[in-house]
Amino acid sequence: MADFDIESVSGLRVIELREQLSNRGLPTTGLKEELVKRLRDAMESEQSIREVSDENSPEISERIKAVGEKEQAREERKSESEINLNQLLAVMMDMNSNLKEMKAGQRE
């Protein structure tokens, strides 16, 4: 079927209306006037979403990029913290081992 606009929806046949609604995952039951209203509402929503996306596209892209950079920095800090914790754990285990040796030496 050729492209059509919101104004021409009422000129579609019921079978065409149902096809368009089905393609959008919307209910296909009801009288023609209900199908026309449902399809018009869906098309108006789609148009609004496109307009908002077009207007904010650079802003949204920048926000996504900023979030990605923050997440990457968080992961790097997390990795550094894990390394520091592992080093601290190794030192503590070493100290614990030395302490046990000292206590064992005092008992002898």
From TrEMBL:
Comp. bias intervals (Basic and acidic residues): 42-53, 60-81
Disordered: region residues: 42-83
Pfam families: SAP
Domain (SAP): residue spans on this chain: 9-43
Domain of life: Eukaryota
InterPro entries in the record: SAP_dom, SAP_dom_sf
Record protein name field: SAP domain-containing protein
Naturally occurring in which organism (per UniProt): Nephila pilipes (Giant wood spider)
